[in-house]
Design brief:
The structure holds two protein chains of two kinds.
Chain A lengths: L9 E5 L9 H5 L5 E4 L4 E4 L9 H5 L5 E5 L12 H13 L4 E2 L14 E3 L20 E3 L22 E3 L3 E3 L9 H14 L3 E2 L16 E5 L8 H6 L2 E5 L10 E3 L6 H7 L7 E3 L9 H14 L6 E6 L4 H9 L5 E5 L8 E2 H6 L4 H14 L7 E5 L5 H10 L3 E4 L1 H6 L22 H4 L4 H26 L14 E3 L4 H7 L2 E2 L3
Parallel strand pairs in A: 9-19, 10-11, 11-12, 12-15, 15-16, 16-18, 18-19, 20-21
Antiparallel strand pairs in A: 1-4, 2-3, 5-17, 6-20, 7-8, 13-14
Helix pairs in contact in A: 4-14, 8-10, 11-14
Chain B lengths: L11 E10 L5 E2 L1 H7 L11 E6 L9 E7 L2 H14 E8 L13 E9 L1 H7 L3 H15 L3 E5 L4 E6 L3 H7 L6 E2 L1 E9 L12 E3 L2 E7 L4 H8 L11 H15 L4 H8 L4 H4 L4 H13 L9 E7 L2 E6 L8 E5 L2 E5 L2 H7 L4 E4 L7 E4 L6
Antiparallel strand pairs in B: 1-10, 1-16, 2-9, 3-8, 3-10, 4-6, 4-7, 5-6, 11-12, 12-13, 13-14, 14-18, 15-16, 15-17
The chains are: A alpha/beta, B alpha+beta.
C-alpha cells in the first residue's frame, strides 16, 4: 500500500446526538467528504479532501457539524512550519508546481491596518451626512491640461471619455470560466443598480450580459479570449490586462474541464481545451508597444471609451506607471500582491509583488512630481477589505478602488482558497452546473448591492467626520492619515506622518 | 525650540473685513483698522494684516515686493539673488511706528522692481509668471527671507499681533487705497514668525480667509504640480495659489472660479438648465481636485475689484452691505457699522454664491 504522507488538514466533527441523517451534507460536499453507508445506516466521513469551505456547516439543519484544524499535527518547529513540510510532501509526490487560489495569505505587513484616519475637533466642524449632502461621485479618465474657450467666449465642454462612478468602488476583473455565469450575472446587475462597473475579466463577455454594457469594463488580456469588435464596443471602457497582483510576471491557465459549451463560445476556443494566457502580451515587449495597443483599441472604438491599463504592483511600479501615463491610457489600475486569483503557482502568489499601499503611494507621488497626475486616473486593488481601506486608498491618492475578493465573500465565498479545483461548493469558482445553480443571482446581486451600500454609508460617515463633503476633496489628502508603528522609511514612502505628529 | 509656521500646519479661526469704493475714491487705512476693533475677540493677538489697492500710484508699473528678512545675512543673500533677475527702481525700509503689542519685528523692506528685460526674454515667460517664480524661489530656497507681497500698485502689511495694532504699526493711516481688506487671526498655536499672518498674496491677488479647510492636502498636492510651493502650510496660501492658477493661468472668470472652489452639489446641478449643467459638470470633472471643502469665508482682492465667497455649506459667517459707492464686507455686521454706521442693504450671501465688486471703468 502506498503511504500517504499527508494527514488531513481539517477534522470534521459530527455531533451524533444532533445529526438526523438527512444526508444534506452528502449532497452538498462536492469534495466527497461525506458518504452514506446504507448497511450501517450512518454517515461516513473522510476528511482527506476537505477544504474547510464551511458549506456543510452552514447548511446542516441541526448544526450538527463542525470543521476545525486537525490537531493531529506534526512536531512543532520554529523553522519548518507544518505548511512547508506538507508542501514538500506534495511536491515529492507529484513533481509539480504547487497551485493555490485567492490572495497571498502569508504574514506580510498589512499597511491599511497601520494607518489611522483623522476627524474634526473644534477648529472646524464635522458634517452630518444625514443632514447635509455628502458626495461620493467620481469621474475616471484623462483630464484636459487646460480649459479651452470657443470663439464666442463660451467654454468648450468636450472631454476625453470618462467613467462616472456613483461610489468609488468597482468590481475587479474575474473571468467567466474562472467564476460562474451566476457570479457574472450578480456582479453585472449590482454594478448597474449601484451606478458603478464590473469587469468581464479575460474570458470574453457572455452574450446574455451585453445588456449590462454601460456598466461593464471589458478586458483584453494576453490570451485575447473572446475579443472581437462587438465585444470591445459592448463595454463602457476597455482594460488591457498587463498583470495581476496575485501572479505578476506570469499568464493564466484555465483547465479544459472548465471549458464547457458556454465558456467555449464566450472565449472563442474549442470545448474542453485548456485556455492558456501567455505571460506577456506577445505584441507588447516594451512601453512603446503598449502605446500602440492603447491607440489601436481607441481606433477600433472611435475614441469613445477610456482605456484602462492594469498592472501588478512590482518593485519598479512608479516608473512603470509614469510610462503608462504617457502611453495614451486614461486610467491605471494597480493590483497589489494580496490580490485574488482563481489559480496561481503558490510560490509566485506568496513571494512576488509588493503591497498595494506602498505601490499606490509611490505611483501617486511620482505622477505628481512629474506633473502628469491629471493624465490618468488611478484605481487601487489587491485587497481592499472594507470601507476604511477605501477611504485610506483614496486619501493616499487613488481615484477609486477595485474589489474582487470582498465581492466574492459577499456572494458566499468562505476563502477556502481552493478555486483551482473547480469544485466550489458555493457555486462561485466552478462550472459544474449543479454547483453553479447554488448561487442565485437574484440573491447574489442584492447581497452585493447591500455590501456596497453599507460601505457607501460608512464612507460618508468617515468623510463627514473629517469635515469633507465630497470624495474628491479626500483624494490624495494624505494629511487625513497617520501611521502607527511604522518606520520613518515606510512613512516617507506612504507620504504620511506618524500618529502624534 | 518649537517649530516655526511652515514647518508645522497651524489651524486658525479669524475675522475678516473689506471696503471698496466702486468709483475709485481713495480711503486711508483708518476706517479698515476701526472695523477690526469690534471683532477683537475673533483674533487672539497672534496675527493680523491688511491689503491695500491703489497705494503706490507713482510706481504703479512696477512690482512692489514686500520682504521680511530674519537678519542682514538673509537680506544680503536675497538682494544678491534679485540683482540678476530684476531691475530695482527703488528700495527702502517700510516705515513703521513703534506700537506696544507688536514685538520681534524682522527687517521689513520694500522693492519696486521690473523684470530684467534680457532675462525675461530668455525665460520665455510673461512678466507675471517670471515674477511669480522669483517669489516662490525666494520663499522656498532663501532661508530667512520671505516675500509677502508682490503685486503692482498694491501692498500687504502683516504681523503677529492684534490687527488694530498691526494697522497702526504699519502707519496705514498714511496710505490711501480704493480697496482695503483686513484680517485678524486666531491660530491654535504660536506661529513663531510673521510669514503666516494674513493676507496672503501672490502678484496682485491677495486673500483674507476665515476657516479651516478640510481639503487642504488634496488641494496642495494638486496645485504643487503647477510650480507652486506651499511653504507656510496655511489654507490661505493654497487658496491664493488656486485663485492665481484658475484666474491667471486657466483664464477662468471670477464667477467660474467660484463654481470650481465652492462647486454646487450634484443635486443642485441636476436642477439647472442643460447649458449650465454642462459647464458645471465640466468644472467638477476637470478641476475636482480644486474643490475646497470645510468652512471658509474669503475675500479675494485684485486690481480693480474684489470677490467674497463662502464655502458651499456656509459654515462661516459673512455679511455684505453698501453705502453710497462703497461696498463693505465683514465677518460681522458690527465691523461694517464701525466703518459706516448707516450702511444699507445688509445681506448674507448664500454658501458658494460669490459677491463680485468691480470698480467702474477707468476708476483705478
Amino acid at each position: 500500500m502506498k503511504i500517504n504522507y499527508l494527514s488531513p488538514e481539517f477534522e470534521v466533527i459530527r455531533n451524533e446526538d444532533r445529526c438526523i441523517k438527512c444526508r444534506l451534507c452528502v449532497k452538498q460536499c462536492a469534495n466527497g467528504v461525506y458518504t452514506y453507508d446504507e448497511n450501517k445506516q450512518t454517515i461516513v466521513i473522510d476528511e482527506t479532501n476537505c477544504v474547510n469551505c464551511q458549506r456543510c456547516v452552514a447548511l446542516c439543519p441541526t448544526r450538527a457539524l463542525k470543521v476545525r484544524k486537525n490537531d493531529c499535527g506534526l512536531r512543532e518547529n520554529g523553522n519548518w512550519s507544518e505548511n512547508t513540510i506538507r508542501e514538500i510532501f506534495k511536491q515529492a509526490g507529484s513533481g509539480g508546481i504547487l497551485l493555490s487560489s485567492m490572495g497571498n495569505p502569508e504574514k506580510y505587513p498589512v499597511y491599511w491596518d497601520k494607518i489611522l484616519i483623522n476627524a474634526s475637533q473644534v477648529t472646524n466642524p464635522s458634517i452630518d451626512p444625514l443632514r447635509e449632502p455628502m458626495e461620493t461621485r467620481v469621474f475616471l479618465g484623462k483630464k484636459p491640461p487646460s480649459m479651452v474657450r470657443k470663439e464666442d467666449g463660451s467654454i468648450d465642454c468636450s472631454l476625453p471619455p470618462q467613467l462616472k462612478l456613483d461610489v468609488p468602488v468597482m468590481f475587479a476583473a474575474m473571468s467567466y470560466g474562472s467564476v460562474s455565469y451566476n457570479v457574472h450575472k450578480s456582479l453585472a446587475k449590482a454594478a448597474q443598480v449601484l451606478g458603478t462597473y464590473y469587469n468581464s475579466g479575460e474570458g470574453g463577455l457572455h452574450e446574455d450580459f451585453y445588456c449590462y454594457g454601460e456598466n461593464t469594463v471589458v478586458q483584453v488580456a494576453s490570451g485575447r479570449f473572446g475579443v472581437h469588435k462587438n465585444y470591445l464596443e459592448a463595454g463602457a471602457a476597455i482594460e488591457i490586462k498587463m498583470g495581476q497582483g496575485a501572479k505578476p510576471g506570469i499568464g493564466g491557465h484555465l483547465p479544459g474541464v472548465k471549458v464547457g459549451p458556454d465558456v467555449s463560445r464566450t472565449r472563442m476556443i474549442p470545448e474542453g481545451t485548456d485556455a492558456i494566457s501567455p505571460a506577456p502580451h506577445h505584441d507588447i515587449y516594451s512601453i512603446e508597444d503598449l502605446r500602440q495597443l492603447v491607440i489601436s483599441l481607441k481606433e477600433a472604438t472611435g475614441y469613445k471609451k477610456p482605456i484602462i491599463v492594469k498592472v501588478a504592483a512590482v518593485h519598479n511600479i512608479a516608473a512603470i506607471a509614469s510610462g503608462i501615463a504617457r502611453s495614451g491610457a486614461d486610467i491605471i489600475a494597480i493590483d497589489g500582491f494580496r490580490g485574488g486569483t482563481g489559480a496561481a503557482p503558490t510560490r509566485i502568489r506568496d513571494n512576488v509583488g509588493i503591497p498595494i499601499e506602498l505601490a499606490l503611494a509611490s505611483v501617486d507621488r511620482q505622477l505628481r512630481d512629474e506633473g502628469i497626475r491629471t493624465n490618468v486616473s488611478l484605481i487601487a486593488g489587491g485587497s481592499i477589505r472594507s470601507s476604511a481601506d477605501v477611504i485610506k486608498a483614496i486619501a493616499l491618492g487613488a481615484d477609486a478602488c477595485y474589489i474582487g475578493t470582498a465581492a466574492l465573500i459577499a456572494l458566499g465565498c468562505h476563502l477556502c482558497r481552493s478555486c483551482q479545483k473547480g469544485k466550489c461548493n458555493w457555486g462561485i469558482a466552478t462550472q459544474v452546473p449543479e454547483l453553479v445553480e447554488r448561487l442565485d443571482p437574484e440573491v447574489g446581486y442584492q447581497r452585493l448591492v447591500n455590501l456596497i451600500t453599507a460601505w457607501k454609508r460608512e464612507i460618508k460617515e468617515m468623510m463627514g467626520g473629517m469635515g469633507i463633503n465630497s470624495i474628491e476633496a479626500l483624494r490624495g489628502n494624505r494629511l487625513m492619515l497617520r501611521g502607527v508603528g511604522l518606520t520613518q522609511k515606510e512613512l516617507d514612502i506612504l507620504g504620511i506622518k506618524h500618529a502624534g505628529e | 525650540m518649537s517649530k516655526l509656521e511652515g514647518q508645522i500646519r497651524i489651524p486658525s479661526g479669524c475675522a475678516i473685513s473689506a471696503v471698496i469704493s466702486k468709483t475709485g475714491e481713495k480711503m486711508t487705512g483708518e476706517k479698515i483698522i476701526e472695523s477690526m476693533i469690534p471683532m477683537h475677540e475673533r483674533s487672539n493677538g497672534l496675527g493680523g494684516g491688511f491689503a491695500g489697492y491703489g497705494i503706490y500710484p507713482e510706481y504703479k508699473d512696477f512690482f512692489a515686493l514686500h520682504i521680511f528678512f530674519r537678519d542682514a545675512l538673509s537680506r544680503k543673500e536675497c538682494e544678491e539673488y534679485l540683482k540678476d533677475k530684476v531691475e530695482i527702481v527703488k528700495q527702502e525700509s517700510i516705515h513703521v511706528r513703534k506700537t506696544p503689542g507688536i514685538k520681534d519685528a524682522p527687517l521689513i523692506r520694500r522693492y519696486f522692481v521690473a523684470p530684467m528685460p534680457c532675462a525675461l526674454a530668455a525665460s520665455q515667460l510673461d512678466e507675471n509668471e517670471y515674477i511669480m517664480r522669483i517669489v516662490i524661489q525666494i520663499n522656498t530656497d532663501i532661508a530667512g527671507a520671505y516675500v509677502f507681497s508682490s503685486g503692482k500698485n498694491m501692498g500687504i502689511f502683516k504681523a503677529v499681533g492684534y490687527p488694530e495694532d498691526v494697522g497702526r504699526f504699519y502707519r496705514l493711516d498714511e496710505y490711501e487705497a480704493y480697496c482695503w481688506t483686513a484680517h485678524g487671526r486666531y491660530p491654535t498655536n504660536t506661529p513663531g514668525w510673521w510669514g503666516g499672518a494674513h493676507p496672503f498674496g501672490l502678484l496682485d491677488y491677495s486673500i483674507v480667509h476665515n476657516g479651516e479647510i478640510s481639503s487642504y492636502d488634496a488641494n496642495r498636492r494638486f496645485i504643487e504640480m503647477f510650480g507652486y510651493r506651499c511653504t507656510l502650510q496655511t489654507d490661505t496660501e493654497v487658496i491664493t495659489y488656486i485663485a492665481d492658477f484658475l484666474l491667471r493661468k486657466q483664464k477662468l472668470t471670477l464667477q467660474e472660479m467660484a463654481s470650481v472652489i465652492a462647486a454646487p452639489f450634484w443635486s443642485e446641478i441636476e436642477r439647472k438648465t442643460d447649458a449650465e449643467k454642462e459647464i458645471l459638470a465640466y468644472f467638477r470633472t476637470v478641476y475636482s481636485s480644486l474643490l475646497v471643502t470645510g468652512p471658509f469665508s474669503i475675500i479675494l482682492g485684485f486690481t480693480g475689484g474684489l470677490m467674497a465667497l463662502n464655502d458651499r455649506l456656509k459654515l462661516r459667517s459673512m455679511v455684505t452691505a453698501e453705502k453710497g459707492d462703497k461696498v463693505l464686507i465683514a465677518s460681522e455686521e458690527a465691523a461694517i457699522r464701525a466703518m459706516e454706521p448707516d450702511a444699507e442693504n445688509i445681506a448674507y450671501p448664500a454658501g458658494g454664491e460669490p459677491v463680485i465688486v468691480r470698480l467702474k471703468e477707468g476708476a483705478y
